[in-house]
Write a structure and sequence with these properties.
Oligomer: single chain
Shape: globular
Structural class: alpha+beta
Radius of gyration: 23 Å
Mean pLDDT: 82
Low-confidence stretches: 13-24
Distance between the termini: 80 Å
Number of helices: 1
Strand content: over 45%
Number of strands: 8
Order of helices and strands: HEEEEEEEE
Helix content: 10-25%
């Protein structure tokens, strides 16, 4: 009886060790550090295309990136309403995460870094598309 209690205790420890090993090795990858690139600060204009159930729309897009990481974007029509949030750089990629004023959705932008042009994708929980803007 004493031996079986001891075996159960060792078995319990083994289970805990396995669980800790899985958590340490199999967890989500940690995201690289965020930074702000001063070359991206300023006003940007260009086009955005939405891909949705209606087949998509194209319209003019303006974006403003501030040195403190604040970002504002707006299309020329209500379909791409005023959105505000933050921008940053991770692993050499521009990223923006904002909240739309019309629906309260989270709007995310991603594009390779360039100091004069951002050409990438955007997405919400309702739609997605592309954008291509140049620095003014």
């Amino acid at each position: 009886m004493r031996g079986s209690a001891r075996f159960r205790t060792l078995g319990d420890y083994r289970g805990v060790l396995i669980a800790l090993s899985i958590a340490a090795c199999g967890g989500e990858a940690e995201e690289a550090p965020r930074s702000l690139d001063p070359a991206l600060v300023g006003d940007w204009t260009g086009m955005t295309s939405a891909i949705d159930a209606a087949g998509g729309t194209t319209q003019r897009l303006t974006m403003s990136l501030r040195a403190d990481g604040f970002m504002r974007a707006e299309g020329e029509t209500g379909a791409f309403c005023l959105s505000e949030g933050e921008w940053f750089v991770v692993d050499g990629q521009f990223r923006g995460v904002m909240t739309t004023s019309c629906f309260g959705n989270t709007l995310s932008f991603r594009a390779p870094i360039s100091s004069t042009r951002l050409d990438g994708t955007w997405s919400t929980n309702r739609a997605g598309g592309t954008f291509d803007v140049s620095k003014r």
